[in-house]
Amino acid sequence: MAVRVQEMDFDVGAELDRLTAGNKRIGGLAVFVGLVREMHVREGYHRDRVDALTLEHYPGMTERALEEIEAEAQRRWPLEATLIVHRHGRMEPGERIVLVAVGSPHREAAFEACEFLVDWLKTKAPFWKLEDTPKGEKWVGAHDADDQAAARWEKK
Amino acid sequence: MKVRYFAWMKRTVGVAEEEIDPPAGVRTVGDLVTWLRTRSAGHAEALAEGAAFGAAVDKRTATFDVAIAGAGEVAFFPPFTGG
Fold first, then answer.
1. Alpha-carbon span A13 to A91, nearest angstrom
2. CATH of the domain at B67
3. Where are the beta strands (DSSP E) in A19-74?
4. B28 vs chain A: nearest CA distance in angstroms?
5. Do A139 and B8 make contact, defined as CB atoms within 8 angstroms?
6. Which of A61, A84, A86, A115 to probe the B interface (max B CBs under 10 A)?
């Protein structure tokens, strides 16, 4: 059960080893790794090249928001281990931005909770992406598709 | 009270944060937005009626009806785009 916001890259293998060490009740580990993509998505088309991405966040509020999202996942699914590592600062295409890992006795809970965490952190944690493109700097706008993905998990 | 701005709002307002002392009639986040708009053209643009932005009071997401009495920090920011 951990949340980290950091500027430096992370080692996925080492993170997963640490997360599962000593816990033999975990039968499945679902992992999501977000990477910087080299093209900007606009209206569903990949038209503009992205040279770099700078992620700004709100220190203090970010960690609290991620912890709340993690706690919500723990309430909804029987989870043995959760980890969210999110980077901030400048990154180039191909670099890792975010790691979400969820361990559970069974794979269904791990898959679902991992998807839930990614969907909610995109819309509920205070991060903002600034793209460096050949046409200058552009703040990334919120995507309706992300809002819809997050809304799927709202309690009816 | 400290007010902070993030992402494009920081650039439009021209500062990342500022110390303010709003008059007694400014009771909610919404009142604060209205009052801040009068501070400069940048404030008016960033906090315009139709602009897409949210707020947090003491690092918790807050709707515009939330009271700001006793708050140490109010933040304004565009929709989140992490992940």
1. 20
2. 3.10.20.30
3. 28-35, 39-42, 45-49, 52-57
4. 20
5. yes
6. A61
- Hey, is the C-beta of B52 within 8 angstroms of any chain A C-beta? yes
Residues on chain A touching B7 (C-beta within 8 angstroms): 56, 128, 130, 139
What tokens were used for A12?
């996925």
Q: Report how far apart, in Å, the C-alpha atoms of A98 and of each of A4, A11, A31 are.
A: 10, 11, 10
The whole-angstrom distance between A106's CA and the closest CA on chain B is 25
- pLDDT tens, per residue, chain A with 156 residues: 899 999 999 999 999 999 999 999 999 999 999 999 887 666 555 667 889 999 999 999 999 999 999 999 999 999 999 999 999 999 999 999 999 999 999 999 999 999 999 999 999 999 999 999 888 898 988 788 888 889 999 875
Second-level CATH architecture of A2-151:
Alpha-Beta Complex (3.90)
Question: Does residue B33 fall inside a structural domain?
Answer: yes
Check A64 against B78: CB less than 8 A apart. Answer: no
Q: Is residue B28 one of the residues assigned to a domain?
A: yes
Contact B80, A125 (CB under 8 A): yes
Going from N- to C-terminal start, the domains of chain A cover 2-151
